[in-house]
Amino acid sequence: MKELTSNPLFGLVLSIGVFLLASRLFKRFPYPFFNPLVVSTVVIILFLKLTGISYDDYYEGGKMLNTLITPATVALGIPLYNTLHLLKRHARSILVGIVTGSLISGVMMILFGRLFRLEDAVLISVVPKNVTTAIALELAEGLGGISAVTLVMVIFTGISGSIMSPFILKLFRVTDPVAQGIALGSTAHAIGTARAMELGEVQGAMSGLSIGVTGTITVFVMPVLLNLLT
């Protein structure tokens, strides 16, 4: 049994299989809390707990999927290219929206961290929560953060943003596809972009653009904010 579970194919097949089943469930019951990523995460955790299989064994195959994060993020440039005319038309509004969202997110996280007296390493780890995983991990580790904490915060932010976005967009009557995409990409990164693509090609392209711009801004601004506010 140990030989089976420690084989890289075990974690890979388990992850893909559970996600495909969760996707079919979501198509039949398209409710936010049935988000495939949420369902598959919960199912895999319960499966590992009930069977006693260690996370290290599972991750032998899971880390193979992690290598696809960066190329998958780069691939978001394809729908962006198809809607390049919208980027040119709304360039100023798009940049202002992304920059404002990035700055507010960073400042609020630092202020909350100080309010609750988080240790510096933990504070550094949670600030880049709205940046895609590849950038957030490198940034947090480079500044002395804890990669595990950063990973949890990034995933939690993406999942919660994907689940809550339909209610928030409806509540504030945000109907413009460009604005919807910018909101999802700058706050819920890649997971939010997956949700944006379900809304439409324009939303997906703008969300993909937001991931790159938000990551770039955060890399330059986060060290400055930390020094100023701490």
What does this structure look like?
It contains 13 helices and no strands. Helices cover 83% and strands 0% of the residues. It is globular. The longest helix is centred in the C-terminal third of the chain and has 29 residues, at 201-229. With 230 residues, it is mostly helical.
Unreliably modeled segments: none
Please give the largest β-sheet: none
Shape: globular
Give the termini distance in whole angstroms: 50 Å
Radius of gyration, in angstroms, nearest whole number: 18 Å
Q: How is the quaternary structure best described?
A: single chain
Individual helix count: 13
Strand content: under 5%
The total count of strands amounts to: 0
Give the averaged pLDDT, no decimals: 85
Proportion of helical residues? over 70%
Which structural class matches the secondary elements? mainly alpha
Order of helices and strands: HHHHHHHHHHHHH
Primary descriptors:
single chain, 230 residues, mainly alpha, globular
Give a brief outline of the structure.
The chain is 83% helix and 0% strand.
